[in-house]
């Protein structure tokens, strides 16, 4: 397989295992490039990419922008502050006006689930999902799986726990879909109030016991509590952040009780002392910084492969 089966990356849904393998193979090659003294290649020279962020972002936006620069693409950065969106312009009109400036590819983060698929059906350009509400975050899932494979090798049969605010996390859904494609066993763990109904329909198991889940898993992917997405505040979901940390926070005391070493991950930003302590986040068990580095290589691979489908 030499090209992706999809014209867009609106989510992990719709991708095949072969697509993931091609992205990982390409990312491995680009990771070697970005660790050279000269980190730039002309792969997307004369390609113009628009980064449309309708939601606040730091790591994802910077990672995409750096990936684009490493590939020598021309970049347009767009945010809603001070834009015509504030005046009532529709998403389709905004994007069509940007495309009229001869943009080749759009990377977009949007607060509404499904916005990318909607846009892909309305405009004639390649769309990359950088996060849509509580729906999906495909490049985060790809970099997470890539990072796990670097540490553990083939993920077939490996046990991965996704722990925390599953209900509001777009990372969780994309991770579940990608890990299942790669043959991993997946379990979600968190308070009952933060586990969506019917999530076991995705082929995952559910636990509300962190210590038992840590005994089970090879990888623990810790998710933060997304207070900004909890419209009713934290009261309906758990008594307090302190109580959450006591029951579902990962600390060295819990890790030291295990009879083996496990791999710790976190998509960021970290609420230190809530879902994970600084001692764990900065320990040899953690591959959090490797995730950040791999994010650039994965996004380079995605942009490069999708540009061939224009």
Question: What is this structure's SSE topology?
Answer:
Blueprint (H helix, E strand, L loop, with lengths): L16 H18 L13 E6 L5 H12 L3 E6 L11 H9 L5 E6 L4 H6 L5 E7 L5 H15 L6 E5 L6 H12 L3 E5 L15 E3 L2 H7 L2 E4 L18 H8 L3 H5 L6 E3 L12 H4 L6 H20 L3
Parallel strand pairs: 1-2, 1-3, 3-4, 5-6, 5-8, 6-7, 8-9
Notes on the protein architecture:
The protein is built from 11 helices and 9 strands. With 310 residues, the protein is α/β, with parallel strands linked by helices. Helix 4 links the parallel strand 3 and strand 4. The strands form 2 sheets. A 5-stranded parallel beta sheet has the order 7-6-5-8-9, with helices on both faces. 37% of the residues lie in helices and 15% in strands.
Can you give keywords for this protein?
single chain, 310 residues, alpha/beta, Rossmann fold, 2 domains, 4-stranded parallel sheet, 11 helices, 9 strands, 37% helix
What can be said about this structure in brief?
By secondary structure, this protein is of the alpha/beta class. The chain has helices at residues 17-34, 59-70, 91-99, 115-120, 138-152, 170-181, 210-216, 241-248, 252-256, 278-281, 288-307, and strands spanning 48-53, 74-79, 105-110, 126-132, 159-163, 185-189, 205-207, 219-222, 263-265. The protein folds into two domains: 17-136 and 292-307, 3-Layer(aba) Sandwich (Rossmann fold); 138-289, Rossmann fold (3-Layer(aba) Sandwich).
């Amino acid at each position: 397989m030499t090209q992706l089966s999809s014209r867009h990356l609106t989510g992990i849904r719709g991708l095949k295992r072969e697509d993931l393998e091609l992205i990982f193979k390409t990312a491995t090659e680009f990771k070697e490039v970005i660790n050279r003294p000269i980190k730039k290649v002309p792969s997307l020279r004369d390609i113009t990419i628009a980064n449309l962020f309708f939601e606040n972002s730091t790591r994802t936006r910077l990672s995409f922008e750096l990936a684009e620069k490493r590939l020598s693409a021309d970049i347009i950065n767009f945010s809603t502050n001070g834009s015509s969106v504030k005046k009532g312009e529709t998403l389709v009109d905004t994007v069509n006006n940007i495309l009229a400036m001869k943009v080749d590819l759009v990377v977009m983060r949007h607060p509404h689930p499904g916005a990318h698929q909607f846009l892909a059906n309305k405009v004639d350009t390649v769309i990359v999902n950088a996060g849509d509400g509580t729906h999906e975050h495909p490049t985060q899932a790809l970099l997470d799986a890539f990072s796990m494979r670097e540490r553990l090798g083939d993920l077939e049969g490996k046990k991965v726990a996704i722990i925390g605010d599953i209900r509001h996390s777009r990372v969780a859904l994309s991770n579940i879909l990608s890990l299942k494609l790669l043959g991993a066993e997946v379990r979600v763990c968190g308070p009952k109030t933060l586990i969506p109904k019917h999530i076991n329909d995705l082929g995952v198991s559910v636990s509300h016991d962190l210590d038992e889940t840590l005994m089970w898993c090879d990888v623990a992917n810790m998710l933060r509590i997304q207070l900004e997405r909890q419209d009713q505040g934290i009261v309906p979901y758990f008594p307090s952040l302190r109580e959450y940390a006591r029951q579902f926070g990962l600390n060295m005391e819990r890790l030291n009780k295990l009879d083996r070493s496990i791999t710790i991950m976190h998509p960021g930003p970290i609420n230190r002392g809530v879902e994970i302590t600084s001692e764990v986040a900065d320990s040899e068990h953690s591959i959090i910084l490797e995730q950040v580095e791999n994010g650039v290589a994965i996004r380079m691979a995605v942009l490069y492969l999708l540009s061939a489908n224009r």
